[in-house]
Amino acid sequence: MNDRSINGARSVSSRAESRPPRADAARNREQLLAVATRVFMAADKEPSMRAIAQEAGVGIATLYRHFPTRESLVDAVYQDQVERLTAGARDLLGELTPAAALRRWMDLFGDWIATKNGMLDTLLAMIDAGEIAHARTRTELLTAITVLLDAGRAAGDLRDDVTAEDVAAALIGVFTVAPRSGSETRAARLLDLLMDGLRPRG
Fold first, then answer.
1. What does 121-134 look like in DSSP terms, one character per residue?
2. Claim: this prediction has a pTM higher than 0.85
3. Contact assessment for residue 108 and residue 64, using Cβ atoms and an 8 Å cutoff
């Protein structure tokens, strides 16, 4: 085979690899991602890949075609949740008052914490191995909280002496004592009390 044939084959292969996934394949991947997120959120321990495939109503081969390893699925779910949190801050501000947006964002944060419960062992191993940049995630989440707090201060809805670190620490405390699975009512009450403390005095 001459160089032209080789280069031509490489060119065709490169173009094929660079093509975006077909719409139906992308939808299937999103559906699997949504199901995996629900399963992780409801699980007391890490579910098997087969259990996730069964919940999604697909064969295990289909799940592995989209996510070849448990780590790739965990990474996809984790990054999807972080993106929803970071983008969600500005999206919520486009729909709600700053205080209401922050309260709704707290629920999203609780969902993210709950999702991690079902994939914690794998997630921690990936963080230890440097496969997930935990520090960058923390920065992104603090930035999202800051966006909400800044909007609240400008609108007079939120106190001006509260930092994103304060809110993050309070949220971790709330969801530690009142995890989303089985304690939704208590978590909601604690979050409402937290919001009362974030409003301007007087």
1. HHHHHHHHTTSS-H
2. no
3. no
